[in-house]
Amino acid sequence: xxxxxxxxxxxxxxxxxxxxxxxxxxxxxxxxxxxxxxxxxxxxxxxxxxxxxxxxxxxxxxxxxxxxxxxxxxxxxxxxxxxxxxxxxxxxxxxxxxxxxxxxxxxxxxxxxxxxxxxxxxxxxxxxxxxxxxxxxxxx
Length: 140
What we know:
8 helices, mainly alpha
């Protein structure tokens, strides 16, 4: 109920990706989107890249995690993060900033993997009819 009646915070695309576990996470890209051959993390040697892994333990995001924990505390479980967000605007902003910063970097790395000629064909960006039509509209 607190979530629905809060007076602060806006759900952004990247914030929702972290809260839902959908997006640039190996677990999702492997099991749901079928764009990865394994659920592993490309930023460390963890066998499963999930939203929880990104929030709590991936060493690639240690600096961003430190900034987040300084505001909301050391418990970075999804339930604790959601509680902190509902608790105040400062915590909401800290979580949103973490998500924007980290997911932007994960998206850039995913695009680089998609565009690489050496990448597995399952990972490459698909050139469907809509994408080709869109690309024709883009300036050279």
